[in-house]
Write a structure and sequence with these properties.
With about 240 residues, this protein is an alpha/beta fold. Strand 2, helix 2 (about 35-50) and strand 3 form a beta-alpha-beta unit. It is built from eight helices and seven strands; from the N terminus they run βαβαβαβαβααβααβ. A seven-stranded parallel β-sheet has the order 3-2-1-4-5-6-7, with helices on both faces. The protein has one domain: 3-Layer(aba) Sandwich (Rossmann fold), CATH 3.40.50.720. Helix 1 (about 10-25) packs across helix 8 (about 210-225), helix 3 runs parallel beside helix 4 (about 100-125) and helix 4 packs parallel to helix 6. It is globular, with a radius of gyration of 17 Å. It has helices at about 10-25, 35-50, 65-75, 100-125, 140-145, 150-170, 195-200, 210-225, and strands spanning about 5, 25-30, 55, 80-85, 130-135, 175-180, 235. The N and C termini lie far apart (about 35 Å).
Amino acid sequence: MKNVLITGASRGIGAECALTFADNGYRVFINYNRSEEKALALCEKIRGKGGECFAVQADVTDRDAVRRMISLCRYHGGGLDVLVNNAGIDFYGTIEQTEPEIWDKIINTDLTGVYNATRAALPELKNSSSGRIINVSSVWGVYGASCEAAYSAAKAGVIGLTKALAKELGLSGVTVNCVAPGFIDTDMNAIFDENAVSDIIDRTPLNRAGTCKDVAEAVLWLASEKASFITGQVLGADGGFM
């Protein structure tokens, strides 16, 4: 049985990734920071369907906590085959409204958190016969979004990190790819009013918002043997937006 660790997996895209990997025979490690109740409920749901699941608490900005989380994955699963860097936060406001502490928090979570988890997990992934890193970025990491400067910068950084690591880790047999979701129906996007949502959907060729399942299936495919010769790529799960 292969092991997958998904950061920020208590809700939204991360939770759907956990369910999708579990349905496909993976032992799933659900990382959460504060949403313990949701993480435990998700674990119970997976176990109720016959899957194996562990909830592991860590703030991805805390390097010591991340190292302890990887140790727990090793203890309970004997190693790690797939790392899905999904944990992220957003802030909607102009750059003038983006106070330094807001900027730092978003960069530390959305970008440095990817570095922290990746660096801690690398020994386990290198020992796997099919090590995979899948980073969750955003279409705004490609295009940039007005009033989401910090988020766009962090997600653009994730794309750059993905491409660099793909070159660096190729000889280790670890593939590194990125999924860039478009507008997805999640709690994070609930802040946008009907007009804003309608505008984005109008600019999406498939003319609908994406679902968490749409993204989770893309992540699962990149983790599979079918994608074993694919690395350093940005896969747009965006209905054609890009």
